[in-house]
Amino acid sequence: MDDPRTLFDLTGRVACITGASSGLGRQVARTLAAAGARVVGVARRSDALAQMQAEIGEHAEAAVADVADRAGIGGLVQVINSKFGAPDILVHAAGVNTREAADEVTPDGWDATFALNLSAPFFLSQAMVPEMKKKRWGRIVNFASLQTTRAFPGGIAYGATKAGIAQLTRAMAEAWSPFGITANAIGPGFFPTELTQAVFDDPQRAERNAAQTCIGRNGQMQDIDGPILFLCSNASGYVTGQVLMVDGGFTAK
């Protein structure tokens, strides 16, 4: 029997992570690099990407781009591929939440939310899948949310995109898993990131959210490490089309 620990070894793999300049995307970049992968972080903020790259070292590269710009996808993929070769792993961590109440949703806010949260994961994956097919191996990980299944105030546009991510993940699996490409999603609970800053700025609200979990606390950045490594490695070779909630049991209650 092979050593089970090698199931999580990403040596020789290339990973692309969107939203890698901060939050969970940056944590994912660190984790995959620590597991042996060479990582390409994609985000709009060049200074924050440079910090990510310096933190990880020679196994990290950066591509400054707006993944919501559909017209730029082809050029972006060329840039990404030029770093370490075509990625084996694609993690879609970029996202936005405009927090507009239902009666105040604007067309611009709605369109921006859908472009980044739902359209970008599909079109960037579509552009990268041909090279994964050639290798007969690939890992696509989308980012779902508590709002994939729960309705939160001010979250109608965001929640609609995250519910869409669940079905997008299943549809990706149906289309591409016969070629050795798995597609899954992680649904984080409350983690201290820029996207949830408003939550953690209110201690009472943060404590209330923690109390709603089965574990009794909010997420810490390292809580994402094991789940993302599982979904990006050989360990999850027979797992596809699934949404793994990493939320301390928030959605179980």
UniProtKB/TrEMBL annotation:
Tell me which InterPro entries the record gives.
KR_dom, NAD(P)-bd_dom_sf, Sc_DH/Rdtase_CS, SDR_fam
| Record's signal peptide | none
The lineage's top-level taxon is Bacteria
* Listed transmembrane segments: none
Instruction: Tell me which SMART domains the record gives.
Output: PKS_KR (SM00822)
Domain Ketoreductase: residue ranges: 13-189
Q: Which Pfam families match?
A: adh_short_C2 (PF13561)
Cross-referenced PANTHER family, in alphabetical order? BLL7886 PROTEIN, SHORT-CHAIN DEHYDROGENASES/REDUCTASES FAMILY MEMBER
Which family does this protein fall into? Belongs to the short-chain dehydrogenases/reductases (SDR) family.
State the protein's name.
SDR family oxidoreductase
State the species of origin.
Answer: Ruegeria atlantica
